[in-house]
Amino acid sequence: MRNCLALFLVTSLLLTLLTVSHAYAMRADSSAYQEPTYDFLAKYLMSTKKSCIRRGGSCDHRPSDCCFSSSCRCNLWGTNCRCQRMGLFQKWGK
């Protein structure tokens, strides 16, 4: 009786292990073996990326158009606008 019970338990354990291991077996063309794609991350980063115009570049006189410690300065007629270093009094005002 004990031998039959032990044989039954070993057989059922082996069958259970075989079915479970078969259920989790992956094919070679599965996505787990492929390189991950980060397209979604690149799209997110590009949507939240804030660009600025560096010194010497032409600007449109929009707020935060020029990079840090620069301001958009235009000539007397409001044309030829360029990002230039902030003046002494502009730094104090911010």
From TrEMBL:
Protein name: U8-agatoxin-Ao1a
Keyword Secreted: yes
Keyword set, alphabetical order: Disulfide bond, Secreted, Signal
GO terms under cellular component: extracellular region
Main location: secreted
GO MF, one example: ion channel inhibitor activity
Cleaved signal peptide residues: 1-23
Localisation: Secreted
